Amino acid sequence: MSARTSVVWTPEFLRYQLSDDHPLNPVRLDLTMRLARELGVLDGVELLEPEPATEEDLLRVHEPGLLTAVRSAPEMPFDVGHGLGTDDNPIFFGMHEAASLICGGSLLAAREIAEGRADRAVNLAGGLHHAMPGRAAGFCIYNDCAVAIAWLLEQGYERIAYVDVDVHHGDGVQVAFYDDPRVMTVSLHQHPLTLWPGTGWPAELGKGPGEGYSVNVPLPPGTRDQGWLRAFHAVVPSLLEEFQPQILVSECGADTHSEDPLANLELTVDGHRATYQAMRELAERVAGGKWLVLGGGGYSLFRVVPRSWTHLLATVLDRDLDPATSIPADWTAHTTGLTRAPLPVAMTDGGDPTFSAWGDGEADRVDAGLVDARRALFPLHGLDPDDPRD
């Protein structure tokens, strides 16, 4: 385990439950922590308990009207607007407190790094990347990713890279920093023609002084591990090497998996593991080892998210798990009481995350999106979009 890694966790995170049958069910967090403990990933790790984000913290990103609406919505007998009371974002009691606590968790993780107590820090409950300045969106009440980044900017950070590997476009974070050259937002996601929120085109480059610092790589439905990793490595390392961030912030949604019910990519937990390891290597190589890790989407609650995010915790803590590791019997017994779905028996799907690099002379169905991204962004950073060495 890295001696300078912090893990933020409290069972109070489980209070962020939008409704009993909402797809964003906090059981995924509980099952992840149970699995990580039973596999020894968290042995000797002191879990840090956060405080809720303050109003000042939230107002770095959000409009006062949204905070007022979120606080008052559970007591209001009528429509409060601001994206609340929809199927995606139903109103629930304690909504402000629960959402503020998740933001507080991401702020604590950021503070651990900024104040020198850790090089890496993780908040699996975070990654609520869709919330906009004035409205909730996409299961996200407040945008903890943007709140943490805004706080880091106030501490004097001048170059922050945000890499979002959720299946949905990281639209809320992009909007928050669209004109700010201090933050490079990078999102790889299912093509916007085929999935909500319908944004995340390569031509969304940023504006004003932020032009060139919003990066979007759309991927076709059916993309598998090999194509996804090909696209990631064809775009992300070159831009981050040129940008030289002082910290890497990662949103690690697990909803790119083939079993996820809300999207149409075809990755495995083996592909997820390879992605997390690639981001760890990037953090070490281009960001001085500073890596803030957040959760995100993921709606295969019992079979996918716990395994994927246990691999994520293991990666952050330098306790990489052999994919062939068996699922502990106690975890299976507990989870069997929660679902009728057959449960996995190992930490692998049998996936093969090896890939052929872009520019190797072969073609892949992901190439259109990655080439569009390279041609839109690379010239703005002095890179040759057609040279695979860049």
UniProtKB/TrEMBL annotation:
Pathway(s) served: Ketone degradation; acetoin degradation
Domain Histone deacetylase stretches: 22-315
GO biological process entries: acetoin catabolic process; epigenetic regulation of gene expression
Pfam family, one: Hist_deacetyl
Entry keyword set: Acetoin catabolism
PANTHER family noted in UniProt: HISTONE DEACETYLASE HDAC1, HISTONE DEACETYLASE HDAC1-RELATED
Family under the similarity heading: Belongs to the histone deacetylase family.
Name the UniProt record assigns to this protein: Acetoin utilization protein AcuC
